[in-house]
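Deliverable D4.2, example record:
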Amino acid sequence: MLDYRADSPRILIDFLSYHETIKAHSQKTVDEYYLDLRNFFRYMKQVRNIQLRDKELDEIDIRDVDIDFIRSITLTDVYGYLAYLSRDRILHHNSRNSERGLTASSRARKIATLRSFFNYLTNKVHLLSENPIKDIDSPKLNKTLPKYLTLGESIQLLDAVDGNNKERDYCILTLFLNCGLRISELIGINLNDIQDDALRIFGKGGKVRIVYLNEACQDALRRYLAVRRPVSGRDANALFLSTRNQRISRSNVHALVKKYLSSAGLDSTQYSSHKLRHTAATLMLQNGVDVKAVQEVLGHEHLNTTEIYTHIDNESLRIAAQANPLSHVKPSASKKEKKTQ
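Output generated by the structure prediction step:
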């Protein structure tokens, strides 16, 4: 967790506090906003002050940034910043041989941060009479379809589970594949979140949703709880425990998923715990679950986030292709072929 209060101007602290308290965004999201805006302010100070040109960007103090400084920022300034990100921004600061230039998706995220900041100043605290970047364009992103396991590969993965923690690991994989949980949601589950055939999930931004457990999930939970060690202390209520009797960590879960992918003969470099979430969504949609229901299960705020899965293997699109009246038309025999017949 970053302490943004130490080196931030008041206006940035207020913006970050708004997202942390009022908007209830996760600490990770708030930290990303802080890093993005700190970098932007450092860049703006450097290009405007010739005395700062010889300084490393990370050395520039932004505590003196105030509303007058921000009022002077134009859309042209922001496009200049994006050009810097595209061409000159170092990707890995701790590497001597780092490449330069951020990807389109990274630049798009930074634009989203700036949009949020200027919207806040214009519409929430009314420190700006007009938003200077309201018409900003985002980089064009190449849409990629999420990778997922087929039904057969999913069964292979479950069949590969073995070892001292097989009940726990099988239960984790089963919840991933059936409920489409995020890894942060899975490791955060407590014993009192299990309510008969339902599971209470604390999702992004502190939002709570209920996920219903099918027969496979209920059976996997019963088998795991029968062997789960009782523990005391801070993690006594944690559902999934490590071998040290602590709440299982993100890295532990990533490692066990990779291990069983390899054991199942699947490419562990292509898949991850998040790909199991993609798998759950895809299998539900392929088997007739309504996209709105899948949205609720996954905890997506916007439907268009869920709809990407409808493009992966949509049987209705196959049916539509076959229904075209030209679908069975083949080339007629050429004149030369007819003579030889």
